[in-house]
Specification:
The complex is a heterotrimer of chains A (333), B (264) and C (287). Chain A has 13 helices and 12 strands. Chain A is of the alpha/beta class. In chain A, the strands form 2 sheets. Chain A has an 8-stranded mixed sheet, with helices on both faces. In chain A, helix 4 packs across helix 5, helix 5 crosses helix 7 and helix 7 packs parallel to helix 8. Chain B is α/β, with parallel strands linked by helices. Chain B has one domain: 3-Layer(aba) Sandwich (Rossmann fold). In chain B, 36% of the residues lie in helices and 24% in strands. In chain B, the strands form 2 sheets. Chain B has a 6-stranded mixed sheet, with helices on both faces. A 4-stranded antiparallel sheet of chain B has the order 2-1-4-5, with helices on one face. Chain C has 287 residues and is an all-alpha fold. Chain C is built from 11 helices and no strands. In chain C, helix 3 runs parallel beside helix 11 and helix 8 crosses helix 9. Chain C is elongated. Classes of the chains: A alpha/beta (333), B alpha/beta (264), C mainly alpha (287).
């Protein structure tokens, strides 16, 4: 991969607890190059949202950084404080799941957009308003001049999501972080927003980091995929290959459990339940629920290792990694 | 033994002071055969949840009627009528009273409907836990001790406690993690097969409906735009909206499950 | 296949019973201990003094603390400590009792009004609006004038004036709980309205009212003290902190303890109840 634009290295986060912290993100690393899109998939407790927020410098109170770093275009980023905000300002932007909460209800959409223009980009009031309308048009909102005068609650869910996207794009970022932006949307609206994101990637050369619990959605949008479970990355690699031939039992389990319209077979759930942070099983945290588990799995601190045969050694192909001792058993014969 | 549920030309209009009246349900009719399963799909604003609430007796329709096995179910249900149609809600975190133990909720229902008291009630509670796949120890705990999937099982146990003929499940798995959604769906399938309850499943997720329901009805803007057998709806949808809905769902494509001998 | 029951794990029960967990809230613990001390003092203290609250000894008036009279004597030679303790009995008893009716009545009517809405809610809210429009003390004093002074008057006056806060609080909480899914589930379960109100709504809306009642007791005690100060409260010879403060005023220069000590007693009682209220707010919320 060419020089990565955004790089997260060995990030670890933990929650404040009265009797010692609970690790919620554990030594997570990934990279995104210019114009590339990376999907981060996981269920609740996987740490995917917190990872994204740490990257954006938006950690909630009670979450501490235990280690690791985030680098943008070669420059390391702070996790909090004033430095954190100014470093990211122009280049990194984020969209959220709840657009109603992400937009200020007392200002019109156009006003919020133009604020960015006048305060961050140094444009005049007229220029920033024109730019606001331009942005609304860019995200596919019809009659942008009229809509710019609307308040967030006056817009439909889909339009609000687009407005939130416009706000994120207002600073002309190079990397867009997305935290489940389509989860709360109707499926038809979701399809439109995903199409919009794909178009914007092409037109603006945006890099994308897309967090979701929905494998099918990331498949549509992301070339690279990272699968997280209880705060750790369990598998990573090119999306299509990874979904066709998963090399970690959790990914495999997730695929089998996902209800898909094309899959006529009954979905098979993963037995057991996701452990709470701070009460993770020893060794590989997935082992109690894993059909491939052996005694070794409970005692070994399994690390991500390159997998997949001779291609893994070739620097030209993006690498596949898996954190499973028995990954070879998952290779289809 | 279960009966047929019929919904005839139900309309629900919400009046809010100072606003335009909102037509949530605009003439919906459907029928659920004994031990059958019908999936009601639609997006937000389609009116499907309102229909569910009318059928469960907690929403009075502006017009239309609901009958169970021919008997008219009054808009304000009697106790016995409530017994027959139970509702499982979407959000497992808010549908259970956080201050009551599981046992107290179940025994209350059993007592109110004169189904069992004392030792008989205790036995029934244990049976219900087993039916939904939870240990008996769960009876003494409050909902906050459980995960989302477990709470949903508790909600199902509560619905089953009164021996209903029809269970209406409003988005029962939407708030749950993917890896355990199938557990709850399997549970519903088992209940339908073993106990013979009829199932009305409300969902925006077409794949969920496909897994569980013999019949599918598609709602849009308060009306049913298409209704039919499952396989027919999914393979040969007639209405344009149904087609749009099906096209919009992202697919997983070929996965390990469907492509076993592929190369790495 | 769904997971076997053996694999199901849920949140282990927190260590210790519900009662023992209350100790983990420091505000609650400190407040409760302080209040218990005060209660013990006023209940059992008088048994250990040789003096009655009215025993006069005109030969030793306005004395400072001494071996005979630990806190001195007042202008009629009565033992200050004994009077303080007996007055505490009066004030705290009246304070607690005066709050019971407003708490019960106000919470219930607020909950019913919030649950059913409509004309009932409208009527209740208009009554609340009218009562709230009067400044609290003005209302209480006016009522005491009408119904008479003394403890009976206090109970009636507070019964009329004080229930509105409880009504508002529980009504607001009920409006939220009314829409919750577990109430809908209770309806679907076929439970009757009174049952739903009593067993599903009430426990979830009463916590704020309980917390407020602690502060309310303080308010009532202060009000009694104020009324006593104005000569409208508890009538002599029953000792009362307010009357003691009033009487002690004239002797500020000679024996300042007569006016100050009762004030300190009021303050300590108020502090302990406030701490309990704060602690309860945390403890009840953490569920």
């Amino acid at each position: 991969m060419s020089q990565p634009l955004l790089s997260v290295d060995d990030l670890s986060l933990s929650l404040d607890r009265p009797h010692g912290g609970a690790r919620v993100v554990d030594h997570v690393s990934f990279q995104v190059g210019k114009g590339e899109s990376l999907g981060i998939v996981g269920e609740s407790g996987s740490g995917k949202s917190l990872t994204l927020r740490a990257t954006m410098g938006l950690l909630p109170t009670g979450v501490n950084v235990d280690g690791g770093s985030v680098t943008l275009a070669g420059e390391p980023l702070a996790f909090s404080g004033r430095a954190a905000r100014s470093q990211r300002r122009r280049q990194l932007a984020m969209v959220f799941q709840d657009s109603l909460a992400a937009l200020d209800p007392v200002y019109t959409v156009g006003y919020q957009l133009s604020e960015v223009g006048s305060h961050v980009m140094g444009l005049s009031r007229k220029q920033s308003w024109a730019r606001a309308v331009e942005l609304l048009d860019l995200v596919g909102i019809r009659e942008p001049q009229r809509r710019a005068h609307a308040y967030p609650h006056e817009l439909s869910g889909g339009m609000r999501q687009r407005a939130m996207l416009a706000l994120a794009l207002a600073t002309e970022p190079t990397v867009l972080l997305c935290d489940e932006p389509t989860t709360a949307l109707d499926v038809t609206v979701q399809a439109q927003v995903l199409e919009l994101l794909a178009r914007l990637r092409r037109e603006l050369g945006l890099s994308l980091v897309f967090v979701s619990h929905d494998l099918a959605v990331v498949r549509q949008l992301c070339e690279q995929l990272v699968v997280m479970y209880t705060g750790r990355i369990v598998e990573s690699g090119p999306t299509e290959k990874l979904l066709r031939e998963p090399l970690h039992p959790y990914t495999r389990g997730l695929l089998d459990a996902t209800l898909d319209l094309d899959d006529y077979e009954r979905a098979r759930p993963i037995p057991g339940s996701i452990p709470e942070p701070g009460r993770l099983p020893s060794g590989c945290s997935f082992h109690p629920r894993c059909t491939y588990a052996t005694d070794e799995c409970a005692v070994t601190d399994v690390k991500l290792t390159p997998v997949g045969g001779p291609q893994a050694a070739d620097p030209a192909t993006p690498s596949r990694q898996s954190a499973c001792l028995h990954w070879t058993e998952l290779v289809p014969r | 033994m279960s009966s047929a549920l019929t919904v005839s030309d139900v309309h629900v209009t919400f009046q809010r002071r100072g606003h335009e009246p909102v037509v949530a349900v605009d003439g919906v009719s459907l029928s659920l055969p004994p031990s059958g399963s019908l999936g009601l799909v639609g997006e937000s604003g389609s009116g499907k949840s309102t229909v569910a609430r009318v059928i469960a007796g907690i929403q009075v329709p502006t017009a239309g009627e609901v009958r169970l096995d021919g008997e008219l179910l009054a808009p304000r249900r009697t106790k016995a009528q409530h017994r027959a149609v139970q509702l499982v809600f979407q959000d497992p975190y808010s549908s259970l009273n956080p201050r009551r133990t599981v046992r107290s909720v179940l025994t209350e229902l059993l007592a109110v409907h004169d189904l069992a008291r004392g030792a008989a009630a205790a036995k029934r509670c244990a049976e219900l836990m087993e039916l939904v796949g939870l240990p008996e120890a769960a009876l003494g705990r409050r909902p906050t001790a459980f995960s989302g999937g477990q709470r949903q099982r508790l909600a199902i146990a509560r619905a089953l406690a009164v021996d209903p003929t029809v269970i209406v499940a409003d988005e029962p798995v939407s708030a749950l993690d993917v890896s355990i959604q199938a557990t709850i769906l399997e549970l519903f399938a088992r209940l339908r097969d073993e106990l013979g309850v009829s199932l009305l499943l409300i969902s925006h997720n077409l794949a969920v409906v496909r897994q569980l329901c013999d019949q599918v009805a598609v709602m849009y803007h308060g009306q049913i735009v298409e209704i039919g057998e499952r396989d027919q709806i999914f393979s040969a949808p007639q209405h344009e909206y149904t087609r749009t809905l099906l096209d919009a769902v992202p697919r997983l494509g070929q996965t390990a499950a469907t492509n076993p001998g592929g190369e790495l | 296949m769904s997971a076997t029951t053996a694999e199901i794990e849920f949140e282990p029960r927190a260590r210790g019973s519900r009662w023992s967990r209350l100790w983990t809230y420091p505000t609650l613990t400190v407040g409760a201990m302080l209040f218990t001390l005060i209660l013990l003092a006023i209940i059992f203290g008088p048994m250990f003094t040789h003096w009655g609250p009215d025993t006069q000894d005109l030969t030793s008036i306005l004395q400072g603390p001494s071996w005979h009279h630990w806190l001195g004597t007042d202008e009629l030679g009565r033992d200050e400590l004994t009077r303080l303790l007996y007055a505490g009995r009066t004030d705290i008893k009246v304070g607690v009792l005066a709050v019971i009716f407003p708490f019960c009545f106000g919470s219930t009517i607020g909950m019913i009004a919030g649950f059913y809405g409509g004309w009932l809610d409208w009527i209740v809210m208009r009554i609340v609006d009218v009562l709230v429009a009067f400044p609290f003390y003005v209302l209480v004093i006016a009522l005491v004038f009408v119904v008479g002074t003394g403890t009976r008057g206090i109970y009636i006056a507070f019964g009329i004036a004080d229930w509105v806060v409880y009504a508002r609080t529980t009504r607001a909480a009920t409006l939220v709980v009314r829409e919750s899914e577990y109430v809908a589930a209770a309806r679907v379960g076929g439970l009757s309205d009174p049952r739903i109100l009593a067993r599903h709504v009430l426990p979830n809306v009463i916590t704020q009212a309980i917390v407020y009642s602690m502060t309310d007791i303080v308010l009532v005690i202060v009000a009694i003290v104020t009324l006593g100060f104005l000569g409208l409260g508890v009538q002599p010879p029953t000792p009362d902190w307010g009357v003691m403060i009033n009487d002690g005023q004239s002797f500020i220069t000679s024996q300042w303890t007569l006016a100050t000590l009762p004030g300190i007693a009021v303050a300590l009682t108020g502090l302990s109840l406030s701490l309990i209220g704060d602690g309860l707010a945390d403890a009840l919320r953490a569920r």
